[in-house]
Amino acid sequence: MSILGRRRTERILAPVRIRVIGNDASGVSFAEETVTVSFNQQGARISLVHSLLPDDVVLVTNLENGVEEEFRVVGAFQQVFGSRCEWGVEAIHTDSAIWGVSFGATDDSAQPRVLIECAACKAAAQSTLSSIEYEVLLATGLISRHCDRCSETTRWKPSTQVVTEEILIRSKKADTKGMQQQRRSRRLKLAMQLRVRNSWGVVDIAQTRDVSKLGLCFVSAQRFSPGDEIYITLPYAQNQAPMETKSRIVWSADGTSGRYYGVEYQR
Fold first, then answer.
1. In the list 41, 207, 219, 254, which could disulfide-bond 258, CB 3.0-4.6 Å?
2. 15: how many CB neighbours lie within 10 A of its CB?
3. End-to-end alpha carbon distance in the chain
4. Domain that residue 200 falls in
5. Residue range 61-119, pLDDT digits in tens
6. Residue 6 falls within a domain, yes or no?
7. What is the rounded distance in angstroms from the CA atom of residue 265 to the CA atom of residue 183?
8. pTM for the full model?
9. Do 212 and 232 sit in the same domain of this protein?
10. How far apart are CA 144 and CA 167, in angstroms?
11. In this structure, is residue 230 part of a structural domain?
């Protein structure tokens, strides 16, 4: 049955092979190949052995088409078996074609507005939730998001407070700020081995400093020059065939542990 043309907010229950790169709950970098449980244009429900921290950013690559995107961790659903758990992740760029599916135009009326409150400071907001946030809230009663009053990421739950003008003003500011944050390309601080190869045969096993959907920064003892065409393998493992991404060096600078290089992916 074709899944083309379905509405953006409708979930598609399909196991798409993906690779997730990020930092786990203890701050250790990881790369894990897994599958989606369900997805739509706004986010996905994924199964992982590694634990995540709410509001962290992870990089998800669709292994079927090679498209990579950034997702924000909304929260955990449930433990499936052993150490494996299902997580809700929200797409930072909702116009992405990572799933290879046409979802059609956005239907804003399908996005629920829910009165929620910070579990720490009790600040309430009537907020428009993405479908994945709403799904996590229904399943667990809690979602994670930034609280301006607490100046940190906190847990939010359904609120029974009376809606006041102050709450409505705060809600409008929070929605505007959230849209602005989604438009920015967020870099994920990540220390992970990668393989770098240039057109002249120079190969190095280097280490990333940070990554994003557009490129990365790595540190190396080798000498490369801005404008050089290189081929990146991330993550890198000796027992796996390299899957290279064509890239370009855009800047370089001396550092304490080697030379830093800024890389832009060439899609």
1. 219
2. 11
3. 31
4. 189-265
5. 999 998 999 999 998 887 676 778 999 999 998 888 899 887 765 555 556 788 999 99
6. no
7. 19
8. 0.77
9. yes
10. 19
11. yes
